[in-house]
Amino acid sequence: MNNLFSLQGRTALITGGSRGIGRMIAAGFLAQGARVYISARKAAACDQTAAELGALGHCVSLPADVSSVAGAKALAAAYATHESQLDILVNNAGAAWGAPFDDFPESGWDKVVDLNLKAPFFLTQALAGHLRLAGKQRVAKVINIASIDGLSVNPQETYSYAGSKAGLVHLTRRMALRLIEDNIAVTAIAPGAFASEMNRDARDRADEVSAHIPAGRIGVDEDMAGAAIYLASRAGDYVVGETLVVDGGVTLKR
User: Fold this and answer.
1) Structural domains in the chain, sorted by start
2) pTM score above 0.90
3) Block means of pLDDT (10 residues each) for the chain, length 254 residues?
């Protein structure tokens, strides 16, 4: 029981790890003893974050654009130069787009769906060999970062974002059924309001946003890190295909 939440000796790869929720999870994993690899499209930002988080433990930058299959394969190849197996994959990289229904562009659809829905599948596929190798020893983990907007409807016209995150919740279930055969547990987290570049309302108007949250505040780093550590650690080994909602109660009001 003393080691239920420990990640000592485990390896983790986190996409979109240079900022926001990805960085929160990376810091939490490092604090629990994992060797962490972070990826982001912007190399300079990824390198800087890895250098900053290096004070907490082993953190390596692997810049990549995972919105294409080629990019996913390139990231998997880069990771393979450092580690022979992968214990924890966090598919966090994401994008959003808002526009009125009549004006919503194809570019706003493709960019968001490619990164939010296609990338988690094909990156997991590209890293399946590393995950399966880890699964021969103990349960390997894939954690998809979805959103409460994939579970309930908000007032914003973010069609591709809502659709992609709802799809990711269901994709998590489908992937989970197959990959648990290889001792790989696939789960998801559906965050609510956390301060980030993607959620600028929570970042810039925290007090106003908090007034609509039953818990009375926006999420903080420890809330997200704690949820991810639970799913990634021994404590979450028997959780398969589920989506953990971390939103302070917002979806209960919608």
Assistant:
1) 11-193+219-249 (3.40.50.720)
2) yes
3) 94 97 98 98 97 97 98 98 98 97 97 98 98 98 98 95 98 98 98 82 78 92 97 98 97 87
